[in-house]
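We both want to read discrete structure tokens more fluently, so let's practise on a single case. Once you have written the record down, we can walk along the chain together.
***
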Amino acid sequence: MLTLKMEKMERRGQLIKKLRRIVSLFGIVFLLGMLVFSCKEEPTSIPPSKLVVPIFNSDSAFVFIEKQLSFGPRVPGTEAQIKTRDWLVQKLKSYGAKTIVQSYEMPIYDGTVLPGHNIIAQFNPKKRNRVLLAAHWDTRIVADKDNERQDEPIMGADDGASGVAALLEIARLIHGQSIDLGVDIMLFDLEDQGDLEGSDAQTDTYALGSRYWSENIAPKGYKAKFGILLDMIAAEGASFGKEEYSVRYAGQYVEKIWDLAQKMGKGNLFKSYNAGAIGDDHVNIIRVGIPAVDIINRPMTGASGFGSYHHTHDDDISIINKSNLKAVGQVVTAVIYREAVGRF
């Protein structure tokens, strides 16, 4: 019996030794596998950012156009200008933007000195990665292309109010859905008070407010990765070609925006034709080293290349197309939210 027990114990000891060798071998293989896997795979501790683009509400933006028009023509030096300025500042502040007003005086083409107020609203002002969104909020002091009442100012439903309204709606969206990006909304004054004959973007009499800003940068030391200017974006029959200065100085962003618009089904508006060189506010943004893109309705029909309503009394609420307003607003909204997660 003793011999039998000893044999059993010996066999048990041998079995335990075999099991230990198997476990040890398995552990080595497992560790080697983990090393190979870790060499092949990227770290997964940081999950990829999720892209969620809020929906641009054209009804809300349309109301913002109506509100601007309710003050009357936003001509520099008038009561309507002051009332509109105060409303814009209050609205942007209500959406949580750090807002400042840059006030100045500048002579227009005929020598008349007019007051201007650039409105600057910043979201996430401490962020280093920033994008500038701009429009002008003043309206033409005369209806020089009209056949009647040429000496009266225009309402500027599209030429001014539409771009401002789109940016107000984007501000509202940012307030409702935070964005990991510095976004600056700049509403320039004294853009549309130039000489009709002026054509050279480097010397013309338009875009005075953005010129003042470019010579007196605010906030001090301001920089942005790129900028987008919205000018006349919502008229019936709008068409957005590629503006020459935008292509020359911000070509990569022109291509990205137009490609994104195509993918979003907005190719009926964002087209590839040459829209010509336009001395708009984006030129002064470019002057300070920020590549800027001008999204502007220029169908290239008529003497000036702009719509038939341009600088006439026809530029009122009746020409606004909500679908066009939404299309441009949604593309720009997609641009900034994609930029925020590195997918633009």
User: Anything to note?
Assistant: The chain has two domains: 1-47, 58-340. Residues 1-9, 25-46 have pLDDT under 50 and may be disordered. Strands lie at 98-107, 113-123, 130-136, 182-188, 226-231, 240-242, 270-274, 292-296. The chain is about 40% helix and 15% strand.
